[in-house]
Amino acid sequence: GSALSASDPEFNEQEQRFRNLERRAMRLLQETKDYRGSIAGMTTAQRALATNLTAFLLDVQRPQDYQSAYRQAATHIDQTSQPQFDEVYVTTVLEPMAQYCGYLPEFNKAIKKRKGLHDDLDKARRALAKEQGKEARDPGAVERAEMDVQYAESAYNTLNSALIREIPKLINSRVYVVDPCFEAFVKSQLQFFNDSLQQMDSVTRAL
Question: What is the pLDDT of residues 21-67, one digit of tens each?
Fold first, then answer.
């Protein structure tokens, strides 16, 4: 089994490239999800802080204008700016990345199937060698074993060639996913932080 695999350095190289892509793509997808959660967590925490700030000082001073302004700003950011950001972010960044990463399990299945076909070919070759090595050969059995080897070789070579051909396409296509996603990511960030800045400007005027 290992001899056949070792004799196919082209596939070995493409599989290594696929593993590197898989690791990086899944990490990027997770970081994309984490960022979304961080923004939501930040705006929720900001709104809670604004609410608790007024409550914390209520027994020592009357509510100040800046406290009300900050609470209104934090509420707007949490209830309006963040959901708007989230909707755009999910559609233009998270979903395209998740769709791209969704192809990875299919390639893993094909690579696993290739190994099974590789094992089937080894088994067929051993069976043929056994039939050919018998002192009293059965021509019919030898012919069937030869056909089994041919079938196994054809199935293995077809999938092996397809993987060698398709893995580079998958790797190269990431450019068409990441570039527009990154552009959308920057634009959605810019919109969110501009909205947040406008809200916080109203707080500075109340200080």
Answer: 999 999 999 999 999 999 999 999 999 999 888 777 766 666 678 88
- Sign of the Cα torsion 61, 64, 66, 70 reads positive
Query: What is the pTM for the complete model shown?
Result: 0.83
Residue the block writes with tokens 């067929």:
124
* Lookup: tokens for 173: 């296509």
What's the rounded Cα separation, in Å, for the pair 130 and 146?
11
